[in-house]
Design a protein that fits this description.
- By secondary structure, the chain is of the alpha/beta class.
- It has two domains: about 140 residues, no CATH class; about 425 residues, Alkaline Phosphatase, subunit A (3-Layer(aba) Sandwich).
- It has 25 helices and 23 strands.
- The strands form eight sheets. The chain has a six-stranded mixed β-sheet, sandwiched between helices. Strands 14-15-17-16 form a four-stranded antiparallel β-sheet, covered by helices on one side.
- It is globular.
- The two termini are about 80 Å apart.
- The structure holds zinc ion.
- The site of zinc ion has 6 residues, from loops.
- This is Phosphodiest-domain-containing protein.
- InterPro entries: Alkaline_phosphatase_core_sf, Phosphodiest/P_Trfase.
Length: about 750
């Protein structure tokens, strides 16, 4: 369309007057000249009737134009004052409103209202007369088409060329003028529509923004998956799972007759005969695998200790710097849950204090190796007694978590300190079983047995060590060439000169040829596929993996020849970290609850602990993150547990070829004779990388006060006892627990100081 002619128009469309009361002043100015006498002059001087028609049309259109503008400006004047608009929006999109000259309004006030209304009236009359005249003429064929077009509010294409005109003279000019005016009108209409459209768009956009913001603010609530609520009679429970890890609880400990509650739990629930840990079978990698479903090579916690080449820093699990999120890859259960609106309570789980992904559990209990087992039970019950989602008056921070994960270090501690076959560990295993009994009793008292899922796992087993199963590191490699040793009790070697990896490996292979008790692997060449232990730069390029029950020691830590001669006892007396599929490294998994609707005593095929993450996620209705696990709920039992399917006790000490040795192995009697000479050796303590304040890996969770001051009774197999003996035993244990509690309180001050330093 042709742009409006800049001259003789009551202000172009871009002029502020179109949006302001100023327009009225223009109008009133012109209207002073716009009199009937003027009309008459024109009529008198008209050359032809066409001229008169043209004049009429012009005046009519101009007047219509002006009145419309005036009307609009009045309307806008009113609206401008009443319109409530957010300030930024006003500034952005209503510039014409705010930047208009203010003079117009005062001018308008000067015109007496009576006078102007009178004028308007007269004008209207005049206009209707002219319109009548034009319409009359048009109906007689003279400007019919044009009128049609005017009434329709749009120009026909053909008419733009002027072909419909019967007059090439002034009529054509008139038409053009009309067209221009008409164009202006339609353009203004379009602009109005555009203005309306833009503002609607802004309104819609703004609404969407508000909606999104509102949605985001509700994110945590709206992300909660649809969950079935179960009632225990007093409260409603959304899916709730208690995950308990018994560190170092070897699968065949269940065969010893000292775990009545765990054995009953198996009969109530679903379980494999054992669960395989992941390689290397040590605490931190495996606890993190349990809650991520990832192999250690995938989540990056490739050992309790390891060197990171990029960070140029050592991860040392008891060092406070290990609790930095930079070490921890993957997404742990508590992050998955919290991100999906499920509250979690994490009690001392390895890694839970590392601020992983900057998402904290709703409840986080820091590690305390001296925490009495009864406190753990009380804590779990306290969490379960919190108000649920149905409680509308409860504060969010007080609300019950749906995932409770608790870590129990006790069995592992005794396994290292006394060995997995010690009488001491029997007491601790029984204590832990007793703790579980209290948990189940607490659930029963709350009518939650069929409402809350319970999953009991362990991270690895334990193998007995002995002075006859030691390998002197100096006999294998030139230790001066090594810069870092990772992963104890395995040895991950990083030579000072990376080019020496191959020659070091070749030398080790030669040694291994005469010593069947160790395996040597290059991370990138022949690391067994089933270990899933190669795809991470944190894994050292060269590894010595001793056979289960064997330990590699430096001379600083333990001189093997001297130890054998003197009949010294090697400590730790129990070790793990070996081939994760070795029977002595086997862990446990037992589950019960509404998420496990299987026949009681159901048995599933053994699986690896990479499956636990998926299983716990499913039990809570969470969407798990991609991981190395493949099992999903419900589990697929292959039958029931029976004596035929029971796990065979593995050989511990493991049967293996003794190292060719110049000195005879010390007998049991010589070990007893040398009791005074017993030394506690920690390989890490003595290593160059270790901090003197750090405790060795095998010491985590070990309470030395308990061990040195409390005489541990021997726990007989309860299955072999008569009822009378059992009753006496229960009474005796109760008395002993009381004594321990009293003694523990007496010493708690010292304990706290000590444990605070540990982690
Ligand atoms: Zn462990």
């Amino acid at each position: 369309m042709a742009p409006p002619a800049p001259t003789n128009k009551p202000g172009s469309l871009l002029s502020p007057s179109h949006y302001d009361d100023d327009a009225s002043s223009i109008h009133s100015e012109r209207s002073d000249q716009d009199t009937d006498s003027e009309d008459d002059e024109v009529l008198m001087g008209a050359r032809t009737s066409a001229d008169i028609r043209a004049h009429d049309r012009n005046v009519l259109l101009e007047e219509e134009e002006r009145d419309k503008l005036l009307e609009e400006s009045r309307r806008r004047g009113r609206r401008g004052s009443a319109l409530v608009m957010p300030a930024p929006l006003k500034k952005l999109f209503s510039k014409s409103f705010t930047e208009l000259p203010m003079a117009g309004s005062s001018e308008q006030e000067e015109i007496p209202a009576e006078k102007s209304s009178d004028k308007r009236k007269r004008r209207r009359e005049r206009r209707s007369k002219r319109k009548e005249r034009l319409m009359d003429e048009a109906s007689h064929g003279e400007d019919g088409e044009l009128m049609y077009e005017m009434e329709e509010g749009g120009m026909k294409e053909g008419s733009a060329t002027g072909s419909s005109s019967d007059n090439e003279g002034s009529d054509e000019i008139d038409r053009r003028g009309l067209r221009i005016l008409h164009d202006e009108k339609s353009q203004r209409r379009r602009r109005w529509r555009t203005w309306l459209f833009i503002h609607s768009l802004i309104a819609v956009g703004f609404s969407i923004l508000v909606l999104v913001a509102w949605k985001l603010s509700l994110h945590r609530k709206s992300a909660v998956p649809i969950q079935t609520m179960l009632s225990n009679g007093t409260a409603l429970f959304a899916p709730t799972t208690i995950l308990i890890s018994l560190d170092g609880f070897r699968a065949d400990f269940l065969n010893r007759g000292i775990t009545p509650r765990l054995n009953a739990f198996i009969k109530e629930g679903v379980s494999p005969v054992y669960m395989n840990p992941s390689f290397p079978s040590v605490t931190f990698p495996n606890h993190y695998t349990l809650v991520t479903g990832l192999y250690p090579e995938s989540h990056g916690i490739v050992g309790n200790t390891f060197w990171d080449m990029e960070l140029k820093e050592e991860f040392y699990y008891t060092n406070p710097s290990a609790m930095q999120s930079k070490w921890w890859g993957g997404e742990p259960l508590w992050v998955t849950a919290e991100n999906q609106g499920i509250r979690t309570a994490i009690h001392m789980w390895p890694g839970s204090e590392a601020h992983i992904m900057a998402i904290e559990p709703a409840f986080l209990d820091a590690y305390n190796g001296a925490e009495p087992l009864s406190n753990k039970v009380n804590r779990i019950m306290q969490l379960l007694d919190m108000p649920g989602r149905e409680n509308e008056v409860a504060e969010v921070q007080d609300m019950r978590p749906q995932l409770i994960a608790a870590y129990v270090p006790n069995v592992d501690g005794d396994g290292h300190l006394y060995g997995p076959n010690s009488t001491e560990i029997r007491v601790t295993i029984n204590d832990v079983d007793n703790m579980l009994d209290h948990v189940f009793q607490g659930l029963e008292q709350r009518n939650l047995t069929n409402i809350v899922n319970v999953v009991v796992v362990s991270d690895h087993g334990m193998a007995t060590t002995d002075v006859t199963r030691l390998i002197q590191l100096e006999d294998l490699v030139d230790t001066n060439l090594i810069e870092h040793t990772d992963g104890w009790p395995l040895y991950g070697l990083r030579p000072k000169d990376p080019a020496q990896v191959q020659s070091m490996y070749d030398g080790l292979v030669e040694k291994a040829a005469t010593n069947p008790n160790l395996d040597v692997y290059l991370r990138d060449v022949n690391m067994p596929e089933r270990y899933h232990f190669s795809k991470n730069e944190r894994i050292a390029p060269l590894w010595i993996v001793p056979k289960t029950g064997w330990a590699i020691v430096t001379k600083d830590e333990f001189d093997v020849v001297e130890g054998k001669e003197k009949g010294l006892v090697y400590h730790p007396r129990g070790l793990h970290g070996y081939d994760h599929e070795h029977p002595l490294m086997r862990a446990i998994f037992v589950a019960r609850g509404p998420a496990f609707p299987h026949a009681p005593n159901s048995r599933v095929e053994p699986f690896q602990n990479t499956e636990v993450y998926n299983i716990v996620c499913d039990s809570l209705g969470l969407v798990p993150k991609p991981n190395n696990g493949t099992l999903r709920l419900p589990l697929k039992p292959i039958g029931l547990h029976s004596p035929d399917t029971a796990l065979e006790d593995p050989n511990d000490p493991p049967t293996s070829t003794p190292t060719p040795s110049p000195t005879p192995s010390p007998s049991a009697t010589s070990e007893e004779e040398a009791a005074d000479a017993v030394i506690s050796i920690s390989p890490i303590e003595a290593s160059s990388a270790a901090d003197s304040n750090e405790i060795p890996p095998h010491m985590v969770g070990v309470d030395p006060i308990d061990d040195t001051n409390v005489d541990r009774p021997v726990v007989p197999d309860e299955s072999e006892m008569t009822q009378e003996e059992k009753d006496f035993w229960e009474w005796f244990k109760a008395k002993l627990d009381g004594l321990k509690g009293w003694f523990g309180e007496l010493l708690s001050g010292d304990k706290d100081a000590e444990t605070g330093e540990r982690r």
